[in-house]
Specification:
heterodimer, A: 13 helices, about 15% strand, B: about 650 residues, alpha/beta, 6-stranded mixed beta sheet, 21 helices, about 10% strand, UBQ-activ_enz_E1_Cys_AS (chain B)
Chain lengths: ~350, ~650
């Protein structure tokens, strides 16, 4: 449970967090300060999320990753100093992560997330999974859902990225709205128009709201070929069937679906060093997925595969930024959360929020 | 066969390692941008920033730590980046980009320039330098949860100045001096008062009651009578506040023990205002403070509670004590500095901030407004724009993606991208929009730029032309002005000292009149502007000049008219660093920063909105609630609306 610590914010915190307290308020900052977060995976996206949460001022961040630093990771991640090859990734990231904000308790955990018992997760208010297999994400999400822990997932595949959130059955939050006050108007008959007395236009009011989320399992169990999906394609009368596919709501799910399947099949993500073989497998999976989605395979560029390799740093920054802010919103219970997916296409610069799951 | 280096095709990866890029600014966007650039594979990066690190930067400028406070941002950023990428070739400049050293030749060294700035003046300048050097420029900005990235390429796209951007809001002198109705008026008054007492004197920053208030003037006989009366009153009313303070010799006894200053400002002046009874027919009249009575109320309530100390709102007694204390502190600071010294107001200087907090609040109380906390007043007085790491992270990511398009030769793929707080009706959180072509009558990038300026040739000083019009308004750094009078008379020379004698003369002294033309050159920016002069004798009060064709910058534009979303181009019009001890007297016209940016109120417009009228209606640029109400969407939009959204049709 997030406990709003009623202690005073120190002078140090007030000075350091000044610019963000002015944005989301002291209350939100206190809630952040009472939250512990688990972050799984310290590749490019993980490092961005770690940075964003540490800077935001959470109580604690545990970075969990069993993988070792490779030569490639040096290029991909800004928390790991050079010459740390062979070290554990979380461990290697620890020092620079802690330097980002000494007021946050940053820890490194080198275990495999699959080996962690259920109780392990219960110490956190939020869990963020990156680089995990689909099955693992579904399993951890079930657990979090039961215990009212906010769950986030995200991945970056080349130019593409996505994030998913499950904030539970009922996520309560507030929105701050300006108070609308009408200025007093009075008739002015003589002389130049008198100025009107205005009430302070900066007063605001907090409105309570609730959002409901579904599990990852349900979100991914989308029936591509159901009537509703088909009917949404028919709402673009000016275009032929093939062109209308571009407006299908499922298009953004396409790349994550293919890449997560690859990850499950190969136990890793596509790697530039095995480009040829990986590209072939990707195209194969692409064909299968497109068929299952009822989409034609010649709609996507043949070389889409070459834009899915590795993690592009700027795409990690964008997805990590959005994901980081969603975690902040959820923990601080302030502002409407994005429900429930965010998709980013780095080629086009478009970022969309969409909901997949039972209505 | 495609060869990849990481995520990138080999050809692109190779060109990244070879090219040189310039990053202007090493703050919120700058830190994120430098990190993205090196991780993406850029090898040769130059970064410039005139500022030093402040503790309030640390919540987002992640390349800096507490131990770096006070050091050069550019320098520390470079060192931090080298920690995780020692092979990067980074040159750091602790300098202003407006320094003439960074001339067109300098800019021509780079394949690409990326701005990570927080003020309009520098953006204008870099815009011109990149046009002159014909180098692509990626421009960006953030404020709170909102952000924007765009690409500027000479001849292909709009330049930064193609769309006129309103300058910061100003308030008429009589509102500040006589009839404040909002806290911001009182805060501006308090800052003026600071300068009158301790800082650089400015005739435009008078704080005493204004007998020339237009509201009073419809009966000329009255005004004259009043003017005479004030002459007879002598002392406080006639003499400027600064002179009065000086005349007392800042005598601590006079100012402090006898509470002369406070009595004068918060009682006597208010009583004087009350005699101008026309002002109070439709308004609630101000209530003078009985200074001595307030003093008797005793100690300020102890600060309690779990909030920030600064967020407390004290009572009148508290603020009166704060006022007295801060005056005394500032007085002795000034005395310590010696003869002829001046203090410069700085939001991060505690007594200066205390002074404004106290003075503004006392005035608010007098004018029946709810008093505000130091925290809130600091926001308004200091033009603080709230900022977080994540917004900057997203924008900096988008900047690099645009950079890659440019370097791949795909500049037609470039877009302006807006970051919203909430998705728009078409579910877009990030909204790409096509770039606009250059504006035909842009006063910067058109082939022969020209403007028309209305002013009074008889009372506009040459110095005002140089500073307020050419530098401040038209963004020049070192203008040279020639009169097109057949003789090529040189009015202003950018060479120091050459035309100094002209500064205190009026334009008419040089034969400039209605219809005159001035040729203005800024050789650093490689920019020539033709200025047409229209002589005008009835400009509004407090208005020194008007640029024909500009949207008026006084009235706040109603939200419904503003559908595009250019993000704040910074909270400053000038280019001084936020931490410099030479920070300029902040613009009198302060921005109200409203922490909620979803629903545009007239105050947040000032922060977010730039152009007076963007050409295209950018449906996609509408945010959250406001736009959702306009377009209730249960089904996809009709096809012709989709046409506006170029991306979907790619």
């Amino acid at each position: 449970m997030i406990e709003k610590e009623d202690s005073i914010i120190s002078e140090e915190e007030a000075a350091q967090y000044d610019r963000q307290i002015r944005l989301w308020g002291l209350d939100a900052q206190k809630r952040l300060r009472g939250s512990r977060v688990l972050l799984v995976g310290l590749r490019g996206l993980g490092a961005e999320v770690a940075k964003n949460l540490i800077l935001a001022g959470v109580k604690g961040l545990t970075m969990l990753d069993h993988e070792l630093v490779t030569e490639e990771s040096c290029r991909a991640q800004f928390l790991i100093p050079v010459n740390n090859q062979g070290q554990n990734r979380a461990q290697a990231s620890l020092e620079r992560a802690q330097y980002l904000n000494p007021m946050v308790e940053v820890k490194a955990d080198t275990d495999r997330v699959e080996t962690k018992p259920d109780e392990f997760f219960l110490q956190f208010e939020a869990v963020c999974l990156t680089g995990c297999s689909r099955d693992l994400m579904v399993r951890v999400d079930q657990l979090c859902f039961q215990h009212n822990i906010k769950l986030f997932c995200g991945d970056v595949f080349g130019y593409h990225g996505y994030m998913f959130s499950d904030l539970g059955q009922e996520h309560n939050y507030v929105e701050e709205k300006p108070k609308v006050v009408k200025p007093k108007t009075e008739e002015s008959n003589d002389g130049p128009e008198a100025k009107k007395t205005k009430i302070d236009p900066n007063e605001t009011t907090m409105i309570k709201k609730t959002a409901c989320f579904c599990s990852l399992k349900l979100a991914l169990e989308v029936d591509w070929t159901n009537e509703k999906a088909k009917s949404s394609l028919k709402h673009t009368p000016h275009f032929s069937t093939t062109q209308s596919i571009v407006f299908s709501p499922f298009v953004p799910l396409f790349v994550p679906t293919v890449l997560l399947k690859f990850r499950t099949d190969k136990g890793r993500d596509p790697h530039p060093e095995s480009f040829e073989a990986d590209a072939m497998l990707l195209r194969q999976i692409r064909d299968d997925v497109l068929e299952a989605m009822g989409l034609s395979s010649d709609l996507l560029p043949h070389d889409f595969v070459s834009y899915c390799f590795s993690e592009m740093a700027p795409v990690c920054a964008v997805v990590g930024g959005v994901l980081g802010q969603e975690v902040v919103k959820a923990l601080s219970q302030r502002d409407a959360p994005h429900k429930n997916f965010f998709f980013f296409d780095g080629m086009k610069g478009s970022g969309v929020v969409d909901y997949f799951g039972p209505k | 066969m495609v060869q990849l280096v990481g995520s990138l095709r080999k050809e692109l990866a190779d060109s990244l390692s070879a090219c040189r890029v310039l990053v202007v600014g090493a703050g919120g966007i700058g830190c994120e941008l430098l990190k993205n650039l090196v991780l993406t594979g850029f090898k040769n990066i130059e970064v410039i920033d005139l500022d030093i690190i402040d503790v309030s930067n640390l919540n987002r400028q992640f390349l800096f730590q507490k131990k770096h406070v006070g050091k050069s941002k550019a320098q520390v950023a470079k060192e931090s980046v080298l920690q995780f990428c020692p092979t990067a070739n980074i040159t750091a400049y602790h300098d202003s980009i407006m320094n003439p050293e960074y001339n067109v030749e300098f800019f021509r060294n780079f394949m690409l320039v990326m701005n990570a700035l927080d003020n309009r003046a520098a953006r204008n300048h870099v815009n011109r330098m990149c046009l002159a050097a014909d180098i692509p420029l990626i421009e960006s900005g953030t404020a709170g949860y909102l952000g924007q990235v765009t690409v500027i390429k000479k001849g292909l796209t709009e330049c930064y100045e193609c769309q006129p951007k309103p300058t910061q809001k100003t308030f008429p002198g009589c509102t500040i001096r006589n009839t404040p109705s909002e806290p911001i008026h009182c805060i501006v008054w308090a800052k003026y008062l600071f300068n009158q007492l301790f800082g650089e004197e400015d005739a435009d920053q008078e704080v005493s009651p204004d007998t020339a208030d237009p509201e009073l003037s419809w009966n000329p006989a009255d005004t004259e009578a009043r003017a005479t009366a004030s002459d007879q009153d002598g002392d406080i009313k006639r003499v400027s506040t600064k002179d009065w303070a000086r005349s007392t010799g800042y005598d601590a006894v006079k100012l402090f023990n006898k509470d002369c200053l406070s009595e004068s400002l918060f009682k006597d002046d208010i009583q004087y205002l009350l005699t101008m009874d026309k002002l109070w027919k439709k308004r609630k009249a101000p209530l003078p403070l009985d200074w001595l009575e307030i003093q008797k109320l005793g100690k300020i309530l102890e600060v309690t509670g779990t909030g920030l100390k600064d967020q407390q709102v004290l009572g009148v007694a508290g603020y009166s004590q704060l006022f007295s204390r801060s005056v005394e502190t500032l007085r002795s600071m000034l005395a310590d500095k010696g003869d002829g010294a001046e203090l410069v107001w700085d939001k991060d200087d505690p007594p200066a901030m205390d002074f404004v907090t106290a003075a503004a609040n006392l005035r608010m109380h007098i004018f029946s407004m709810n008093m505000k906390s130091r925290f809130d007043i600091k926001s308004m007085a200091g033009n603080i724009i709230p900022a977080i790491a994540t917004t900057n992270a997203v924008i900096a990511g988008l900047i690099v993606l645009e950079a890659l398009k440019i370097l791949s030769g795909d500049v037609e793929q470039c877009r302006t991208i807006f970051l919203n707080k909430q998705p728009n009706p078409r579910k877009k959180l990030l909204v790409p929009c096509a770039l606009d072509p250059p504006s035909a009558n842009c006063y910067v990038c058109a082939s022969k730029p020209e403007v028309t300026v209305k002013l009074n040739v008889h009372n506009t000083l040459v110095l005002a032309l140089q500073d307020k019009i050419l530098k401040e308004k038209f963004g020049m750094v070192a203008p040279d002005v020639q009169i097109e009078d057949g003789k090529g008379t040189i009015l202003i020379s950018s060479e120091e000292g050459e035309t100094e004698a002209n500064n205190s003369k009026f334009l008419s002294d040089f034969g400039i009149r209605h219809g005159s033309r001035l040729q203005v050159d800024d050789f650093l920016q490689d920019y020539t502007l033709l200025v047409n002069v229209i002589h005008c004798e009835d400009l509004e009060k407090d208005v020194e000049f008007e640029v024909v064709g500009d949207a008026p910058d006084k009235a706040p534009t109603p939200p419904s008219a503003q559908e595009d979303k250019n993000v704040a181009n910074g909270n400053k019009d000038s280019a001084e660093p936020s931490t410099s001890s030479k920070a300029p007297a902040e613009q009198d016209d302060v921005l109200i920063v409203d922490s909620d940016e979803e629903e545009p109120s007239s105050s947040t417009m000032d922060v977010r909105m730039e152009s007076g009228g963007h050409k295209r209606k950018l449906h996609d640029a509408e945010t959250g609630e406001a736009s959702a109400k306009r377009q209730r969407l249960d089904q996809p939009l009709a096809a012709d609306e989709e046409d506006d959204d170029i991306i979907a049709l790619d």
